[in-house]
Amino acid sequence: MRFPLLPMWKVDSITELTPAILEEKGIRLLMLDFDNTIVPYATNAPTREMAAWLQTMTDSSVEICVVSNSKKNRVKIFCDQYGIPCITHAKKPGTKGIRECLSRYGLPKENCALAGDQIYTDVLGGNSAGVQSILVKAIHNHNFWLKARGVLELPWRAAACKRRIAP
């Protein structure tokens, strides 16, 4: 059994996860956190690199679905604009939203992963649900609370330093 706060994999940016890398790891469904994983909290506009990555992923055989704790309409608007399915009010680190996503796609847990920037919600939620967890470096910790959370996560981030999924 894996330790619940230790991610299975780690990347600096979600864009490092190519369809080929995910397929090599047996991942057929990639669940994505939204804020600070795809876009910063303060905007709905992805970088050109992120927009290109989203297009590459939607064109690939790897399914993607945003699984976000957000209750704001901006997540649904963004996902509609980019043709990405989404689940909001996911209640991570609980497994409600993750289980809903797994049910929607009907894939075995071992072929699914959750990628996000927070250990205490995304990694813990993914591990609790039995899917592969991928820790992503936060795009921008723009306020005191995000920076403080980052400090609290440092031991787990350090422990995961050798778990790089991509070069």
Secondary-structure blueprint:
Layout: E1 9-11, H1 19-24, E2 29-32, H2 48-59, E3 63-67, H3 73-82, E4 86-87, H4 96-105, E5 112-116, H5 119-129, E6 132-136, H6 144-159
Parallel strand pairs: 1-6, 2-3, 2-5, 3-4, 5-6
Please sum up the structure shown.
The chain has helices spanning 19-24, 48-59, 73-82, 96-105, 119-129, 144-159, and strands at residues 9-11, 29-32, 63-67, 86-87, 112-116, 132-136.
Task: Give structural notes.
This protein has about 170 residues and is of the alpha/beta class. The chain has a single domain, classed as 3-Layer(aba) Sandwich (Rossmann fold). The chain is built from 6 helices and 6 strands, in the order E-H-E-H-E-H-E-H-E-H-E-H. The chain has helices at about 20-25, 50-60, 75-80, 95-105, 120-130, 145-160, and strands at about 10, 30, 65, 85, 110-115, 130-135. A 6-stranded parallel sheet has the order 1-6-5-2-3-4. Helix 2 (about 50-60) links the parallel strand 2 (about 30) and strand 3. The longest helix has 16 residues, at about 145-160. It is globular, with a radius of gyration of 14 Å. The two termini are about 25 Å apart. The mean pLDDT is about 90.
**How large is the share of residues in beta strands?**
5-15%
The largest sheet, given as strand count, sense and whether it forms a barrel, is: 6 strands, parallel
Compute the number of strand runs. 6
> Which CATH class applies here?
Alpha Beta
The number of domains: 1
SSE run: EHEHEHEHEHEH
Q: Number of helical runs?
A: 6
CATH architecture call: 3-Layer(aba) Sandwich
